[in-house]
C-alpha cells in the first residue's frame, strides 16, 4: 500500500532519527568507542544527506512557491547548515 505523508512528517522523523543517533554517540563516546564511532558515522552521513535534501530540493521549491529567499527562513537555515 502506497502511503502519502506530508513532507514535514518525513523531515521531522529524519530529524528525530538523527537526534537519537547523536544521543547514542554521546552516551557511548567514553565507554564503548566502537558503538560511539558507528553511531557518529551514521549520524554524519544522515546529516549530510538531510542537508542536501533540504538545500537542493526542498528549499528551492519553497522559495519558488513563496517568492521568499533572501533573508527568509531558508536563508537562515542555510546559515545554520554552514555552522553545523
Structural notes for this entry:
The chain is mainly alpha-helical and 84 residues long. The chain has helices spanning 7-28, 33-66, 73-83. The protein has one domain (7-83). The chain is built from three helices and no strands. The chain starts with 6 loop residues before the first helix and ends with a helix.
Rg (C-alpha, Å) = 16 Å
Helix percentage: over 70%
Strand content: under 5%
Q: Characterize the biggest β-sheet.
A: none
What's the mean pLDDT score? 93
The total domain count is 1
Q: Structural class per helix/strand content?
A: mainly alpha
Question: Can I get a quick summary?
Answer:
This protein is mainly alpha-helical.
Features:
84 residues, 80% helix, mainly alpha, elongated
Secondary structure layout:
Blueprint: H1 7-28, H2 33-66, H3 73-83
Helix pairs in contact: 1-2
